[in-house]
């Protein structure tokens, strides 16, 4: 039932913590060799728990998972040899130099010293740390530490690399260069990469396939294009100065309108249409005909943002702002088009 | 397994000797104890000014003065403190994610506590040497009493001392490293350490002669593992069984049994703590 070249197989995997907290709730997916697979979801969705199970740090409470053909519960040491992990938090040692950190990592992964030396130079070069290799890590910036962490994860040339929130807390430039490193790895080594992120841009920029995870469940699993396609057409968000009861109904009954979401008390509506170029003029004309004053109009082309909203019923950013991570948001800020009341 | 262990020991030691404050503490802490506690607390004088001249060696485990007595006890003290720190350091490694990095690595789980016990031993043995050298050099300072070795003290005696200290260091750091792995909250760990610190130290003959203790305390002190260690070492340093509680062989057996117990307990606890949750 599984494809031949799947290097990560997850089958009805489950992690229930005491007090019936279902961190991972019966998820199943596969990652093919050489693919970049992304887990996208808000904080607390179960991404890190899944990585933790797959990298043999946490025991699942149900289901099973295989990495490189080895069961993560029964043969953890075989799994460990073949995988690399770049954890969410920084674990590089401040009191050692960058090179010493790499040497330590190499010896933990049984890389012979003769091989390690060349590889360390090569990897430090890859993550552009060659010039700072012999400086203490405590003098590094956050971005440099993160890059060193990435280089460490590669020292034993793992077949599968796990990246837990690889760009969390990094500035936009460092984020972009991290993406370059990851894409370069994929091009040059055909390494299988499993990453988690709550940045839609990141999942879009890097991943061949994306699983959207929320409350411990996978709610969508597809290519970025597939997910966008599933969302359908464009979304028009209209805000009016004063709403009249029947205009929502009027728009809903128009041809070319797929879905209308909103309430009159809100003075705003989210309208899904196959093609905004055709639908928008019609909608605006009919509103003006009714003497309804339009306050703002926004058109959104299909994006993962929408896909996320579509599948989870809420904006990813809503979740972020409650967890205090909204300051680190990448890219231009897009307007909210949905609020949960 | 050897290679990873050595790399991790090297990592711990680098973190240690690269922190100037740590190096200063290696010298100043024992110096304070020897200089202030050891010199000021010279209870040997009490006996000397009294009428009944007792053989002080009976009180001071073979030493003729209190300072020589406590200087040996001080080495055991050092082992105890180094063990506390090894336990605390492993808790910090958990906090900073370094421990989980080790848990993902394809290394035998035992390497994690073993490397920490070993690095703790290297540090504490160095410090114990500093204590002995400092205490002995006090002989040269006018006005201070110093640690006086028996003239027959030789390399075999020195190695015997080292064996006692190493066994003590292994047992205590096995216990505290395991506690550092099990306890995940620093306040709890510090509390536990404090709870164990006082009884271990002050129910032993490290700093207070057993002869001066009330009977009930003496009954406890006679079975304190630190008592075995300092009792044995004093016989080696002062080359006499006068004032000793046990023979050197019994002392060695006592600390040996304690080591086996602590290492087993430590292994049990560490194993549980390193199992996947």
What does this structure look like?
The complex is a heterodimer of chains A (341) and B (277). Chain A is of the alpha/beta class and 341 residues long. Chain A contains 12 helices and 14 strands. Chain A folds into 2 domains: 218 residues, Rossmann fold (3-Layer(aba) Sandwich); 100 residues, 2-Layer Sandwich (Alpha-Beta Plaits), CATH 3.30.70. Chain A has a 6-stranded mixed β-sheet, sandwiched between helices. In chain A, strand 12 and strand 13 form a beta hairpin. In chain A, helix 3 packs across helix 4, helix 3 packs parallel to helix 5 and helix 4 packs across helix 5. Chain A starts with 5 loop residues before the first strand and ends in an 18-residue tail after the last helix. The C terminus of chain A is likely disordered. Chain B has one domain. Chain B is built from 12 helices and no strands. Chain B starts with a helix and ends with a helix. The model of chain B has no long low-confidence stretch (mean pLDDT 92). Classes of the chains: A alpha/beta (341), B mainly alpha (277). The interface between A and B is medium-sized, with 25 and 23 residues.
Layout of strands and helices, then pairs:
The complex is a heterodimer of chains A (341) and B (277).
Chain A: E1 6-17, E2 21-32, E3 36-40, H1 47-54, E4 62-67, E5 70-71, H2 76-82, E6 83-86, H3 98-108, H4 113-126, H5 142-154, E7 160-164, H6 172-189, E8 192-197, H7 200-206, E9 209-214, E10 217-222, H8 224-231, E11 234-240, H9 247-252, E12 259-263, E13 268-273, H10 276-289, E14 294-300, H11 304-312, H12 316-323
Parallel strand pairs in A: 3-8, 3-9, 6-7, 7-8
Antiparallel strand pairs in A: 1-2, 1-4, 4-5, 9-10, 11-13, 11-14, 12-13
Helix pairs in contact in A: 3-4, 3-5, 4-5, 8-11
Chain B: H1 2-17, H2 20-40, H3 44-49, H4 56-59, H5 66-95, H6 98-104, H7 111-137, H8 155-182, H9 186-202, H10 215-221, H11 225-238, H12 248-274
